[in-house]
Amino acid sequence: MKNWLVVVLVIFVHVTSILAQDNYIPSSKNLENRTWFQDAKFGLFIHWGVYSILGDGEWVMQQQNINTDRYELLPNFFNPEKFDAEEIVSLAKAAGMKYITITTKHHDGFAMYDSQVSDYDIVDSTPFQRDIFRELEQACKKAGIKLFAYYSQLDWHHPDYYPRGKTGHDLGRPETGHWQDYLKYQNAQIKEIAENYDIAGFWFDGYWDQNDLKKQGKASQDFKLEDTYKLIHSVNSGLLIGNNHHLAPINGEDFQMFEKDLPGKNTAGFSDGTEIGNLPLETCETINHSWGFNLQDAHHKSSKELIRYLVKAAGNNANFLLNIGPMPNGDIQEEHKTLLKEVGMWMQNASETIYDTRAGEIQKEQIVSTYKKDTLYLHLLDENLQNISVTFEKPIKSICYFSSGDPINFKQQKGNLTFDLDANQMNPIDTIIQINL
Ligand code: FHN
């Protein structure tokens, strides 16, 4: 072989091995956890912080331009004596949820766990002095529910979150700061959460605060995501990392989430052109119109809407993370408790068609499908449907109504499956047809 060719080959092998090191390879524990995640299908999202006192959502600091020194008064009034981790976990469990994702720090920068890196946290700065994240961790463990930590990378409180991104400009902070020091602070908090709490993973948010500037060609700061992800996986390679950056997955992530939209849709404006990657998927949505507690928001979704969202998410291969915002006293609004119970009642009968499933091949406007092993479940989301005609080529053994078990006569010709529906078997929320293959 010519000398120059040997040199080129050596360089090529060296460069590819360096690249390979940079490419994240999930551990087998991580892959197992991803499968658990995909099987779990349904989780409870909790947005809770000192902002709940103001009853105007989690963006109140930004929306009302509250200076940091005034906002810092809020922890003094935060004493949620009705907070009961076990009650919240049992609400989630009764709803059929398998995990809880709660804000350990939202954009306001206030930590809802006992941070050793800062005293701006629930234990050191409130009269309550209890670590609600620890209490949830214990309650979750008892109930067999997994816990995820939401963490906002955007911070409206920390002085070193500077230069600022697209938000947090009029909050009275000095126009100075050291971005690298903010990253150290952020990573120290993330590390202590990963090390000190028994969690299943991280749910990041706020990356878009800088990235949206970058998209507009303006100067922006780099969160060095891959460093943070490496740090987390070096503490525990099994931890699942997702980031609500509204982009296709980035190296080091383990699941991809969509905000207020099913994968591939963009009705809410957060997923414009967002590619669906090949990681496990999740979609999050509010139970009313707000994430954090909003006193005036009475736009509660119906249990029918929530169940249908869950079914459609499963039919699109995604988990559904349904959000509630506890009140400042720690209690959950009665309407939300009732809705969770109603969803749970539906799950008691139909969870078999949701858990452990993957998206089935039949998807139409009002028909979604899920499958596992040799069973395909057709979810009919229109009670007035009279017959079904869909492309389906796999050989079918039998078809029945899932709830009654009553058989359905069908025809399958040239890859087309047809059958009539019995109006008496139709359900106003979701008529489930079981197809045995
Ligand atoms: O700004 C946040 C918002 O408060 C909330 O946390 C949602 C949840 O998906 N995410 C952000 C917006 O993308």
Descriptive notes:
With 437 residues, this protein is an alpha/beta fold. The protein has two domains: 329 residues, TIM Barrel (Alpha-Beta Barrel), CATH 3.20.20; 70 residues, Golgi alpha-mannosidase II (Immunoglobulin-like). Helix content is 32%, strand content 19%. It is built from 13 helices and 16 strands. It is globular. About 3% of the residues have low confidence. The structure holds ligand FHN. The site of ligand FHN has 9 residues, from loops.
Q: Which fold name corresponds to the CATH topology of the largest domain?
A: TIM Barrel
Distance between the termini: 57 Å
Note the total helix count: 13
Mean pLDDT, rounded to whole units? Answer: 95
List the helices and strands and how they pair.
Elements: H1 3-22, H2 28-40, E1 42-46, H3 60-63, H4 68-71, H5 74-77, H6 85-94, E2 99-105, H7 122-125, H8 132-143, E3 146-152, H9 179-196, E4 201-205, H10 208-215, H11 225-235, E5 240-243, E6 256-259, E7 281-286, H12 303-315, E8 318-324, H13 334-350, E9 358-359, E10 367-372, E11 375-380, E12 387-391, E13 398-401, E14 411-413, E15 416-420, E16 431-436
Ligand FHN binds next to loops.
